[in-house]
Amino acid sequence: MIADVLADAGVRMDRAVEAAKEDFATVRTGRANPQLFQKVLVDYYGSPTPLAQLASINNPEARTLLITPYDKSALKAIEQAIRDIPNLGVNPTNDGNLVRVTMPELTEERRKEYVKLVRGKGEDAKVHVRGIRRKAKDDIDALKGEVGEDELARAEKELDALTRAHVDGIDDALKRKEAELLEV
Description:
Blueprint: H1 2-25, E1 41-44, E2 47-50, H2 51-54, E3 55-61, E4 64-69, H3 75-83, E5 93-94, E6 99-102, H4 108-141, H5 149-182
Antiparallel strand pairs: 1-2, 3-4, 4-6, 5-6
Protein name: Ribosome-recycling factor
Function: Responsible for the release of ribosomes from messenger RNA at the termination of protein biosynthesis. May increase the efficiency of translation by recycling ribosomes from one round of translation to another.
Organism: Microbacterium psychrotolerans
């Protein structure tokens, strides 16, 4: 019973850490990265569709991305969706066949804004991991009559260690992203 609760919490915390890393990847650095557009939704015939399903994204140069839609009628919608991305500061150009996105140079002030944004995303991920811990702790406490006090204490220590390991994983990813953002 306790092992099931701990295993479930571990799996959910792993997913939270992976989601945080993916979220960090959507914050741009000095170079163009196709992952920046990972979560972009394009209004395609009235339904929000992920950009990756509508077009191929290539990175021919350090600061340029080429987005080639599979359906040319989606060009304007893709261009508008990219223009509407907050905190990116790009102006895509459409030549009738593809959308070209050139990333502007990051100023020191803009880099610091991105670091703040990433720290906020990191804190949100940590709060999520702690919420998973809280639910698992409640599930363990519900087993009070079925298992002994020693088992409950051991399970709680394991849960704390699991939580600490996942929070440290988020902190490590956060430090790497901050270093990447501040690198000139």
